[in-house]
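call fold target=FkbM family methyltransferase
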Amino acid sequence: MNKEIAKNLLKAIVYFLKKRNHFSVLQAKYLFYDFVGAKKELKALRIDTLKSYVGLKENLNHYIFDDLLFIKTEEKLIEAVVGMCLDIFLKDNFYRLQNETLRENIQDEPKFYFYNEGPYEIEEVQVNANDIVIDAGANMGMFSILAAKKGAKVYAFEPQAVFLNYLNQNCKLNSLEGNISIYNFAVSSHECETSLSVNRDNLLSASINIDRKGHFETVKCISIDNWVATNHIPRIDFIKADIEGAERLLIDGAKYTIQKFKPQMAIATYHLDDDKEVIKRKILDICPDYRIIQTGFVLFAYYIK
């Protein structure tokens, strides 16, 4: 018996007893099906529950969330779409939803096991209007869209073809082509060609620094320092990086940019066991005056003059 499933079921029962609402009922039912291995019932309940929780709707070609449109993905990625809407828009207290009741319905931390990483902004580290933002590991473009909607100019980097396609389409659907520039590169410590390890069962985990036990695709890498210099970027205000274990390589290739521009940073630190210590040390070695805030999954860094 999976101890983690049993623990989650116990949590769900406690949550239900404390707060008997629509979601607590659905969650308890969901985790019970998971606990007893009722796969057919679980699958039937799974996506409808998650979608109803974040307010995601759909028509023939699009998902609709608040005033945003996202292109339909292959079925196995729907949880990722839901999770990104949850973490990047609903949990981000600094993005104003058109439908305020959506946020009112998310008063408690969701207890589902999946995609509970949290937002890329906190009170001390936020995207502001007119910022120049690097989104490394842009995926389908959820964070790029949030930043652009807040008035930033975004440079989005995504090496994986399937997500590059979704990213382009999502920018067009939301009329943000002028605010988001898209690059088909992985971000690393230097310019090169390398292998991207892709597991077909988990496309979100593709990595240039971790073997995902799938197939390999050849991708081009850039470093932030070289890219900034080559493209005459006047400054960088914010760096978001969620690149499956290559975050430390990104920092190695952004030393000059960090020293010169002191960007705010939101860096994922959950892919490698020593990410939290290694990435914090690398940032402070470049600029000891950075303030660091570590949440469960993301390291936030900011500089106070």
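return ok
DSSP finds eleven helices and 14 strands in the chain. Residues 22 and 220 are 47 Å apart (CA to CA).
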